[in-house]
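One chain given next:
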Amino acid sequence: MPSRDIALWQAMSVMALLSALLLALFAGLRPVIDADTAAYLMASNAADPWIQVKAPYYGWLIGSGLSFVPALQLAVFWCAVAAISLQARRFGASRTACISLAAAALFSTAFFTDTNVLIPESLGLSGALFAVAGVTRAAGGERDSLAMTLVVSGSAMACILRPIWLPMIVVLPLLFVVLRKRPAPIGFGICVLVMAMMPAILLSAVRYDKTGEFDVESFGGYQASGLVSLMLTPNLVERLRGDERATAQRMLALRIAAQDGGLAIGIPRNSSGVRSFPSTALEYPDVLARTYDDIKFRHRLLLRRPGESWPAFDARLLRTDLAVIRAAPLSYVEWLAGASARFAGHALVLNPLMLVAATLLVTTWLLPTGGPASSNAVPGDVKFLGAVTVAWLVAAGLLSITASFPAGRYIDSASMFLPALPLYFAARRLEQATPLARLSSSVWPGGAGKRR
């Protein structure tokens, strides 16, 4: 059975140990305190955890033994990578494809930057991996309780710990439809959707009972207020009505005071000496990314009304955010274009493993092969790796562009599987190289160019 491929597990074990060694060498296996760590721990220990700035779930999970968290997050991530690789092999992907998928995860920037940090990024990544593993199992024909358990538990981990993964709820059933090997009843695709949605809906119902707001976490309005504040102009504020107008007016005043006082970059002047959002968003999106948190944090300090609970404050900001976007859709489109450009540039050019994979691909392409170029790749592998990469990119990256700004950690998470296909093509090309093909045939009977 493919899932009992000893050579695959030997390769994965070596890669896992090597990734841990590199992590220990360059970052150490010690807990790293992030700017948001205190907020997560405070929420979990608060008398009323539901009305805090951060959700309490991560603090409840890690408890007080912070020194063990990096080891815990490392172990969970390893298990998640093993799960998706195992299910990919059972699905029918070749050994080379499974190793490429695992290598993309184990040597990703997200792995090295998130594993030690006391925030829920690493566990959210692991949850998403478990969910994709469940869908892969179901798409291969094993539509059993294990597949559903992986989907439910994985989507719960990802979407509850890191709500930026919420698009995964829709992406998972679409991934199932793309990957399924034979036609399946449409009801099962709907079942995947319901199973992925269920944890978020149940938690939102609990939060509605506790706070009056139906959401996974009261943070979306506050998070998006940064991009809305940068879009605002006096004319735009005048087009709003009621409480949204008053809130937007205050947001604009805070941004202008911050940029004039040198506390935030805000909207810089263009070559004509005019502060222009369109030119900044389209041509210099990194400037907006740099100033985003400064603007947003001033909202947290100075925009909240006396006695206003955090959920109510976030809900008010969300209403204002939506009103501003409806009033200025073109500015929002300009934001999306600039944020997408930043996202793509960082995901491709500033992704170390992607650069390594591209270099390997170019190098191996120059090697002489023992067969035709068409034998370098298995179509089923390309479809599988491509579908998983796109699904992962959309699930992790969509909200970072549409409802926030594409911070480095969001891009690193979303682009984790981008190197998988270049690594796969490079490995297949290497297997076909004439001197190596004979060695591969002696180690793995059946020939280097055949599917294993």
Confidence is low (pLDDT under 50) at residues 436-452. The chain has two domains: 2-215+349-443, 220-328. Residues 2-215+349-443 form one domain. Residues 52 and 67 are 24 Å apart (CA to CA).
